[in-house]
Amino acid sequence: MRYLTAGESHGPQLTTILEGVPSGLSLTEEDINRELERRQKGHGRGRRMQIEKDRVQITAGVRHGETLGSPIALVVVNDDFKHWTKIMGSEPVGHDEAEEVKRQITKPRPGHADLNGAIKYNHRDMRNVLERSSARETTVRVAAGAVAKKFLEELGIHVTSHVLEIGGVKAELDTYPSLEEMKDRTEESPVRCLDKEAEGKMMRAIDEAKENGDSIGGIVEVIVEGMPPAVGSYVHYDRKLDAKVAGAIVSINAFKGAEIGIGFDAARRPGSVVHDEITWSEEEGYMRRTNNAGGFEGGMTTGMPIIVRGVMKPIPTLYKPLESVDINTKESYKASIERSDSCAVPAASVVAESVVAWELANALIEQFGVDNMDVIRENIAKHREHARLF
């Protein structure tokens, strides 16, 4: 499977085309809209979430609630575009209208794609960069991920996430309840945190950052249960599934690192403690006594829960902007201010779910069949039984 996204933050719409989704998958717009709604929640979101009520339109690839096997086209309209038609319209701007278009953005924001993107594409107006490099693009990445999650659910594989840390405030819970209970509890939390005490501290940290014109980041964790073992490969670097998952996490706007299992803590422990002992039972097949590896060994799934964390830096758009340089005059100025969130970590956890789900779904389709759901279900069932009795 693969997908492409198109659209600018304040353009008319966001679009994604998904190719390779098998036929026979039950899919409705509401399946996707639920995930889009989750992405818009979270303490610390900005005014944009009050303007845009993201709803998807399925314009190709689905008929009567089932995928056809042909490319799927998903569209999310930007309601705010009506206020940006002269600034972001596709038609050439006439001489008389030029004054109505806002001035060029020539002061890049530290921590953003503005300057590098302008150099790469030779843009003197950095709005051409920031409109596409905006996290608004993750709207349709979540839409694509919703399709992947629906695919996984039909195979008994479930994905959820929670927030471990915001602005230095850490959740103290070391274990999680059932995945279903975790999802219910985090959906009720304004910061998607299981630890109620930490939840309040996180919200206060977000409010304080907002009052100071600042932003804060954090750490999210995605957990997946039900993946069969031996999905992925050890034979080539670019076929290792844990590498694809880690790469997907870091591809999210503002994410700067990924951990699988105990991650960097493995460097601080002896091997006798780090590695997961193997057991076997007729009912369950091969299992691990612990899950320090986070569901992966040798680039392949172990059948244990997949646990991956991502670190999100503070959003680089600040209401007390940092120093920058005007690319035209080369003089020092304060960077441009664009409407932004003070913290988007809770929403980013939903994005993280989506990108992980996509990589896992793609790996399953590559390994067990590409054309229709019946073949994939049958092949995975045979594989599970083979792995149990091996």
TrEMBL record:
Annotated binding of FMN, by residue: 132-134, 253-254, 298, 313-317, 339
Cofactor note: Reduced FMN (FMNH(2)).
Keywords: Amino-acid biosynthesis, Aromatic amino acid biosynthesis, FAD, Flavoprotein, FMN, Lyase, NADP
GO MF entries: chorismate synthase activity; FMN binding
Residue numbers binding NADP(+): 39, 45
Entries under Pfam families matching the protein: Chorismate_synt
Pathway: Metabolic intermediate biosynthesis; chorismate biosynthesis; chorismate from D-erythrose 4-phosphate and phosphoenolpyruvate: step 7/7
Highest taxon listed in the record's lineage: Bacteria
GO (cellular component) term, any one: cytosol
Enzyme type, top EC level: lyase
HAMAP family for the chain: Chorismate_synth
Name of this chain's protein: Chorismate synthase
